[in-house]
Amino acid sequence: MMVVFVDKNKEKYGGEPICRQIQISPSSYYEHKGRERDPDRLPDRIKRDMRLELDIHRVWKGNFRVYGARKVWRQLLREGIGVARCTVERLMKKLGMQGVRRGTKCWTTIADDLLARPTDKVSRQFVATRPNQLWVADITFVATWTGFVYVAFITDVFARYIVGWRVSRSLHTDMVLDALEQALWARREIKGLIHHSDHGC
To answer: pTM above the 0.85 mark?
Structure first.
């Protein structure tokens, strides 16, 4: 940041006077600018970090951006790239990379106390004596290689069978309504088949 400040103001105030005011050595400033022009002048540690950053990004991206530092480190070792795990952690943090963490919060319901809530029409008694007498709906989420997806499904309580479902990357009301529409359509299809069967068709 100090080098950027000097670059922005050196034409007006001069590079060396600014360096003296912000208490950095003019030689350090010029050495930094020289390294920008000629990367071969960079210290060996920095050049190695730059090569490792390319390998880390390749492994992380090649594994759907879900690998954390431990898995990236193990993959680099398998490829014969000798590096300490703490170095991988440091460089991934610098590059803003992180893996998918188990137990990450994924909300399926955000309650709004200002909205009216539907009444419990079965008093928590989820029992049915025949098909299509009682359906229940639920929403959950599933972790995939590319992130979380939401799943809404409608279940026939009597048959304990999912009669309608939908999957989406975002949580919205239409997803549940689409699952219900699928269940209703499937029920109409089944009733139609039974009706034709009864008439010998």
So the answer is: no
